[in-house]
Amino acid sequence: METRVFQALNRFGLGRRGQEALPADPAAWLAQQLRQPDPTRLAALPSTATGLTALRQDRSEKPKPEDSRTRALYRAEAAAQLANAIATPAPFRESLVWFWTNHFTVSARRGECAAVLGAFVEEAIRPHVTGPFQDMLVAVMRHPAMLLYLDNAQSAGPASLAATFGKRGLNENLARECLELHTVTPAAGYTQADVTEYAKILTGWSIDLEANPPGFRFRPRAHQPGEKTLLGQKFPEGEAGGLQALAFLAGHPATHRALATALARHYIADDPPDAAIRRIEAALRDTGGNLGAAAQALIGIEAAWTPGTKLRRPQEFVVSVVRALDLPENNRPPMIAVLAGLGQPFQSAPAPNGWPDRAADWAAPEAMLRRIDWSYAVSARAGDQDPEAIATASLGPLLRASTRDDMRRAGSRRDALALLLASPEFQRR
Amino acid sequence: MILTRRAALLGLAGSVTLGRASLALAAAPTDQRFVVVILRGAMDGLSAVVPYGDPALAGLRGDLLPPGPGQEKGLLDLGGYFGLHPALANFHAMYKDGDLAVLHAVAGAYRSRSHFEAQDYLESGASQRLTTGWLNRVVAALPTSTGPVDEAFAVGVAVPLLLRGPAPVGSWAPTSFATPSPELYARIAELHHTDPVTGPAIAAGLRERGFAAGMNTGDTKDNARYAFPALAAEAGKMLARPDGPRIAAMELGGWDTHAAQTNRLEFPLRQLDTGLAALKAALGPAWSKTAILVMTEFGRTVRTNGTKGTDHGTGTVAFALGGAIAGGRVLGDWPGLGAGRLLDDRDLQPTTDLRSVAKGMLAAHLGLNAKALAAVFPGSEAASPVSGLLRS
User: B368-371, long-range: CB within 8 Å, 24+ apart, which pairs?
Assistant: First the structure.
């Protein structure tokens, strides 16, 4: 039973924080996080309107990089998101926020998105992690962060007024990635014609940067007139056609299969058993795509309780270290820089498919050595805390005898802590 | 280096960490310089200063002994009974100049073979863990002056317990230079050995960084090997300045030689030796006003263990060096290694209390009276100051 307590904290959560109370019933503790409202909404929520206003000002004033309002917003929001993850009493829920944020990757590498990345998480992802997938999909596809990142804001139907009387044309980027990555995946057997049709369905889904407040705007002048056909289904002209297409894609069996596979890969194993995928898939199907039901199904799958099958990604690792050492705000490592150094710069995935979720993708030799180096560096911040007490608190029965013995033999507290943080059982979850 | 700029900004003190070495500084109303070097991990005193004249030595640890004085890579003789480890060539030169004294068979008042406890006690200056370090209490015990402002500050990571307390001390640490010891890398690699993904990755990463196959030699490409000498040189520059700090604490790790000791000890000894030579060079004329105490939390077993190393013991060696030291001598009451002489039949029997050594230096070098010394080392009445450690 005690192993399951620590498995709940580490596999589903973000690691135990200091000596926080242990859940009496780990499965119930996880389930409760799904049922109760999110306890971590930030006090000063970033808004899309604020971010877009900053982007508008930057575009007109062209400040030097160090004076950029969008960069300042990004940095502040990144710090707030990470602080949120360290403080949250509902770490499974927060881990689901991370999972879905990565599923719908928007990357700060596309600089104009940076100002609205925080708002994207808070508006499009966080409210929906235990609700219908369709709600999240609609919120994401209408969000200015995604419309900027995958270029739909500028897309115009070939027969639209905007294309006829202007220079703009169709951009398939968002439509293609939505099919390939966010919903049905190529397993659904869609064709290039489907991609083009879907792109036409989404024409006009844009941003009004000049409005007050600036935000999403459906632009009829850019919208492709007429009925469209996607995967054999007909959708009417107008914004309503897009909403119907999203509902169709969200409920597609191939979407349920893809989401179930991704969840199982993240919470069970790099190559999850097919039976586990089928159970999550069934939960989605039976509930009309309810993500809370999918997460609840995960808790009930025995394979999810096998320790150590997943390698922590750098962001999971760094946050779990700060939680384990329970570092106060004035003694935390510069997390944004650390994440970049460890190969996972915050909300800056290289491509729309997001960060990979297999150990082999993260265990490059130099990447592992950097984890060891940082384990040693951050251990200097732990002060006089007893390394073995930290090991027991954060890993419980998952702590291996070999690691404990090495820690006892270590020549300094710092060495002992570095051994713990770099150990296989801490690197994995 | 950032320390210089940082310390200049702050005016009085600072602390810096490089690799496994670190440095903290404090201002004090004196023109004398006092430096404490903590060797974390328990230095094997019998390897640093070898009692080659003791007839029982060869039988107890013959396989760990360097060749005798006068032979190639042999001991550096200290007058016919003791010899310095061959990696301590600069120490030998200072000894011959009369600037370095060896204190053998020393230990703290405590008896703990736990590194963490023993380091706490060593730094607290007591047989229990206190919230302040004895070196901070030294700063507090010095008479107040019109000198540097009484301004506390804290930046970055921790000051060692030794220098923690109410007297103002700075702290600063660049994270980019922090790398573990080669042995720690090796231990972590071993913990991952059976992991099919991380195990091979870590082994390959260490090879790419230039570690030898056995990973015992510390032969890394990074700058960790230069960390302590670089840090010591910075400390020397700071301490040399007319308005600079007067008290410094430095740390050097890598002494916990449970296995393959002959190889593993060479590296930290060389760091210590070149580091304090760099400190001397940077101090310039201020060397004559400098006293340095080098100490470790405990010694190591007299007998070799089953992995060509030594385990946690008791008595060990301390060094007093600097232009203010009356050196060129091996001090202390040598207990011998023969039958019945060892503590618990395993450790070098301590005959001199480390606090007596520190008190002797503080009294003669910084002018601390008996009352002040009692405040620095509470409950140390039985440990009377070693006299004659400083040039008069």
Answer: B368/B138, B368/B141, B368/B142
